[in-house]
Design brief:
Elements (H helix, E strand, L loop, with lengths): L3 E3 L11 H11 L4 E5 L4 E4 H18 L6 E5 L4 H13 L2 E5 L5 H11 L1 E6 L8 H8 L22 E4 L9 E2 H13 L12 E7 L7 E6 H14 L7 E3 L7 H12 L4 E4 L6 H11 L3 E4 L1 H8 L14 E4 L6 H11 L5 E5 L6 E4 L6 H6 L3 E2 L3 E6 L12 E7 L5 E2 L3 H7 L6 E9 L5 E6 L4 E3 L2 E3 L1 H8 L5 E11 L3 E10 L7 H8 L11 E4 L13 H12 L8
Parallel strand pairs: 2-12, 4-5, 4-6, 5-9, 6-7, 7-8, 11-12, 11-13, 13-14, 14-15, 26-27
Antiparallel strand pairs: 1-18, 2-3, 9-10, 10-20, 15-16, 16-17, 18-19, 19-21, 21-22, 23-24, 25-26
Helix pairs in contact: 1-2, 1-3, 2-3, 2-6, 4-5, 7-8, 9-10, 10-11
Length: 559
């Protein structure tokens, strides 16, 4: 048998848009809870969410945006994020989801690459002053100028900045007023467009070995169907409530969470803007959530919380653990102590909307933790060797995916798209995997040097490119080392210019405020040379082994 599997096709793909899906939910379950934002104390039923999304969509059009324009959103988990997600879908505007941990250079790059005409952002949260940072990138957005009076020299396509929350600031469009503006426009007869399911609707940023982030372009058809089949995989019903502490800017939150909810009628429950284990446990207990999502580090933090025993989690039955290898013992503790007997594992990548494999609640626990399950409906996967030939069952090779879920491409980057998506439509993942005789897949390694820290993909080349800007650095290699809490942590080996001086705290300070905190190397070593192959390539695996030995680090026990 060859390592080539196809998912079931008995259940047809959805051939409508995300906006249509919300309209259906509003008609099918108008009074049922749709969105519960505990941090902001906002509760919306499906009819209210649909009405507010239509109003905001109309407001965006009345502001001057047109179908196909790009709208950035830069925020942690807030109810406005989800209204914006559905509003953009109804208006046919491409939502550009920006990591809330991004800092100045990353934000500017994302807005410039995607050509955003507007951005909706959060008020300041903890140490992240989003309005202050956008003013730093767009200095023309001064306190003296009113809405619409400024123009950005660095981002000439950016015309509007919308601020969530109740506060008003010069130059910003208040979120509430944009909703009201849209409601008025609808009352005057403005009609929303009719996007096609195959239209692009979302750009998500992911990096690769070339360093610079790439904009994964996804359609309604891509992500709506993936959310639907993920929801079917955990058997969601309108009576269910999904606790979603994972970030909305990523597919885990906005697709596996929000779009699974809208296609099943289950409620979305946000414990707060950022992840907090106690807030998550409290949300599950007080809202009687039946499903809980998280990366392994989130579940570990919840289980290890001193307050864990104070919360009644008996309402839980299912959920998803994904984003990083799932430790067997953690899975067992989640099943035993959190009542999640039907928890599943998912595997995929942003470029495949994201999920390609998912375990079933019917699979034995050992099967659920030792594999990533079986292939998703309407998805085709093969494992290939270096020559591109499909390997036998049980043999390792590169995992390739084909089907409805494969991205349209990287935004405005045909060469990079062609490098990963071949002429036959296969998306080459860069992951090493095996498929057994029963069709269960196991991820055994990575062709890329990608580091997975706490469920988030970090790309060494991108961080290296930034560190090269430091005048003291001659050469640098960034790689992952084992970490018992996050799975992996970042380490940088640095060669300095002759006569230059630099220490670990100074290098880390050089990164703060410019790149996301999780991309700042935790460990830094200054060396004279790197181990090289005879052809001049750095042998990163030797760097990893040497650093792990120096620090006496043990790899986390994973499936």
């Amino acid at each position: 048998m060859l390592s080539h599997v196809r998912g079931p096709t008995a259940e047809r793909l959805l051939e409508h848009t995300i906006g249509d899906a919300l309209g259906h939910a509003a008609r099918a379950w108008p009074d049922r809870p749709a969105l519960i934002d505990r941090g902001q104390q906002v509760r919306l039923d499906w009819a209210e969410l649909d009405r507010r999304a239509e109003a905001l969509g109309a407001g965006l059009l009345d502001l001057g945006l047109r179908p196909g324009d790009r709208l950035g959103i830069w925020s942690l988990n807030r109810f406005e994020w989800t209204i914006t997600q559905f509003a953009a879908a109804k208006a046919g505007i491409v939502l550009v989801t920006i990591n809330p941990a991004y800092r100045l250079s990353e934000l500017e790059y994302a807005l410039k690459l995607s050509g955003c005409a507007a951005i909706i952002l959060s008020p300041a949260f903890k140490t992240s002053d989003y309005p202050g940072m956008i003013r730093a990138v767009v200095p023309e957005l001064t306190h003296e100028l009113a809405e619409g009076e400024w123009r950005s020299a660095r981002l000439p396509r950016l015309r509007h900045v919308v601020l969530m929350g109740q506060d008003e600031a010069a130059g910003f469009v208040p979120f509430a007023s944009l909703e009201a503006r849209g409601a008025s426009a609808l009352a005057r007869g403005l009609t929303l467009p009719r996007p096609r399911p195959t239209d692009p609707i979302n750009i998500q940023f992911t990096s690769g070995t070339t360093g610079a982030p790439k904009g994964v372009t996804l359609s309604h058809r891509n992500i709506l169907n993936n959310g639907y089949f993920v929801g079917r995989g955990v058997r969601l019903l309108p009576e269910d409530r999904i606790c979603i502490p994972v970030p909305l800017y990523h597919c885990f939150g906005m697709v596996m969470g929000n779009l699974a909810a809208v296609t099943s009628g289950a409620a979305m429950v946000y414990p707060g803007e950022g992840f907090d284990p106690v807030a998550t446990l409290r949300s599950v207990a007080e809202e009687r959530c039946t499903a809980l999502y998280g990366v392994p580090t989130m579940f570990i933090a919840e289980l290890e919380s001193p307050e864990f025993g104070q919360f009644d989690l008996s309402s839980l039955r299912t959920g998803i653990m994904a984003g990083a290898p799932c430790p067997i013992e953690v899975m067992r503790r989640v099943v035993d102590r959190m009542h999640m007997t039907e928890i599943t594992i998912c595997y995929g990548m942003t470029e495949t909307s994201p999920v390609s494999f998912q375990s079933s609640p019917d699979d034995p626990l050992e099967r659920r933790v030792s594999t990533v399950g079986q292939v998703h409906p309407h998805v085709e996967v093969k494992i290939v060797d270096e020559a591109g030939e499909t390997v036998s069952r049980g043999q390792a090779g590169e995992l390739c995916t084909r089907g409805y879920s494969v991205m349209q491409g990287y935004w405005d980057d045909e060469p990079q798209t062609a490098a990963v998506k071949d002429a036959e439509g296969w998306m080459h993942s860069g992951d090493l995997a095996t498929i057994d005789d029963e069709g269960y897949a196991n991820i055994v390694g990575r062709l890329k040097d990608m580091v997975i820290r706490g469920g988030e993909n970090l790309y060494p080349r991108e961080i290296e490119e930034y560190l090269y800007r430091h005048p003291a650095i001659r050469d640098v290699q960034v790689f992952g080392v084992p970490d018992p809490r996050y799975g992996e942590e970042l380490c940088a080996w640095v060669i300095l210019h002759e006569g230059a001086a630099l220490d670990e705290p100074s290098l880390q300070d050089f990164c703060r405020g410019q790149i996301a905190h999780q991309k700042i190397p935790r460990y830094v070593r200054f060396v004279e040379s790197f181990p090289m192959t005879v052809t001049g390539k750095v042998q990163k695996y030797l760097l990893r082994e040497a650093m792990a030995a120096q620090l006496d680090l043990k790899a986390a026990a994973t499936a």
